[in-house]
Design brief:
- The chain has one domain.
- It contains 13 helices and three strands.
- Strands 1-2-3 form a three-stranded antiparallel β-sheet.
- Helix 4 runs parallel beside helix 6, helix 5 runs antiparallel to helix 6 and helix 6 packs antiparallel against helix 11.
């Protein structure tokens, strides 16, 4: 996606690893989408390759965006952050008013196969805005500092996303921003307190909503109603268990044939488990771990504070969403309705995720070599660094008019004979 010669040797392995994993994930996702949809489509008299063709088109669009992002200077994204946030807010409000209701949720704007999921754009906008904000200001150290403006903006997006309803995206946003705050230097006790408040409010909101309450109770005991509310949970576990070590064979799964709801989107990990077995899902999980390693290495190597936080946020976004999806499928968390990155069917998710990979590749290319556009103003103690006069090792600049007069007076006294 970018020229190999332009990538620093120290990050050549991470750059190659990101490209290899992304290409492998996208191709594997196309195969699994076809496997999960062709059989049921043929039985229903539809086009067996319909989902594959649309997913291939989304992959092409995402690849073009990834190449463009890999060849553009990531630092320019700082100036687009406010516009992206306002656009995402507008679309998240619009989807609640005019969005098409599918399976009881309003998450998409558009008609037919040309649909946009605003919550996917919201994740990209938030990761860019948060990285830009944390790059120019000291990391929040108290709950009061955390609440404004990062907490307020994240909370607003989460409220809009939960109204769709889309619990999985809200959780992904909270995990992503938390990772960026941790990298920026926010103390762990402050983050823990913030998460405690968020989870407390989420628990209250869940209990107050009949829909979310039913989801939670179903998660605790899906076998209580295996043919009703617990159908998706139970069938996912059956699909995973029937695969054994090596699976039934690619394309030989049974649960995807009208037994497992949403087999090509939320539950595609269960299809992988049934057809490719424990070996297949292990390789898939290892792939996400390798993606996390490459992304974190880029974050550590980047000299630009904005790029460092952006790389950490994108890495947390992709791998965090994968962890949430996998945990829901295997029964370790309630079903949240978010796709498995790169693999599940979903145009908005695939396009945005590939664009994020392109940004990571550009950080690998430029982050360790270019000078920081905005100096890192945070120290280990969390307080802002004082700028040095003359750019070298001079004394710190006075920060008030009173200091200016005092320094000027001391210089005049020293100059007297």
């Amino acid at each position: 996606m970018s020229r190999r010669a332009a990538v620093p040797k120290a990050l050549q392995f991470e750059w190659n690893l990101l490209v290899l994993i992304t290409v492998a994930f996208v191709l594997f996702g196309l195969i699994m989408v076809y496997s999960a949809t062709s059989g049921s489509a043929a039985l229903g008299g539809s086009n067996p390759t319909g989902y594959l063709e649309r997913q291939g088109l989304y992959a092409l669009v995402g690849t073009i965006l990834a190449i463009a992002a890999a060849r553009s200077d990531f630092r320019k994204l700082r100036h687009l952050a406010p516009s992206l946030v306002l656009t995402a807010l507008f679309l998240c409000l619009a989807v609640l008013a005019i969005g098409e209701r599918i399976n009881g949720a309003r998450r998409w704007i558009g008609a037919g196969s040309l649909q946009l999921q605003p919550s996917e754009l919201a994740k990209l906008a938030l990761v860019i805005w948060t990285a830009a904000y944390l790059a120019r200001t000291p990391a929040p150290r108290t709950l009061k500092e955390l609440a404004r403006p990062v907490g307020a903006l994240v909370g607003l997006f989460c409220i809009l996303v939960l109204a769709e309803p889309d619990l999985g995206t809200a959780i992904t946003i909270v995990v992503m921003v938390g990772a960026m705050l941790l990298v920026s230097g926010t103390p762990i006790p402050t983050l823990a307190s913030g998460y405690a408040i968020v989870f407390g409010l989420a628990a209250a909101a869940t209990w107050a909503s009949p829909y979310r309450k039913a989801r939670l109770l179903t998660f605790l005991d899906p076998w209580k109603d295996p043919l009703g509310a617990g159908l998706q949970n139970v069938q996912a576990l059956i699909s995973l268990g029937s695969g054994g070590v090596f699976g039934r064979g690619l394309g030989q799964g049974i649960e995807k044939l009208h037994y497992l709801p949403e087999a090509h989107t939320d539950m595609i990990f269960a299809v992988v488990g049934e057809e490719l077995g424990l070996v297949g899902v292990t390789v898939l999980v290892v792939g996400y771990c390798a993606f996390a390693y490459a992304g974190l290495r880029l974050a550590l190597s980047c000299k630009d504070p904005f790029g460092k936080r952006l790389a950490a946020g994108i890495t947390a976004l992709v791998t965090g969403q994968a962890a949430i999806n996998i945990a829901a499928v295997v029964g370790l968390a309630p079903l949240t309705g978010i796709p498995l990155p790169f693999v599940s069917y979903g145009g908005s998710s695939l396009v945005v995720t590939l664009a994020c990979v392109g940004i990571l590749l550009n950080i690998a290319r430029n982050g360790a070599t270019v000078a920081a556009e905005v100096p890192d103003r945070s120290r280990r103690d969390g307080r802002p660094r004082r700028a040095r006069a003359g750019g070298g090792g001079g004394a710190a600049r006075p920060r008030s008019e009173r200091d200016v007069r005092r320094v000027a007076g001391s210089r005049r006294s020293a100059a007297r004979p």
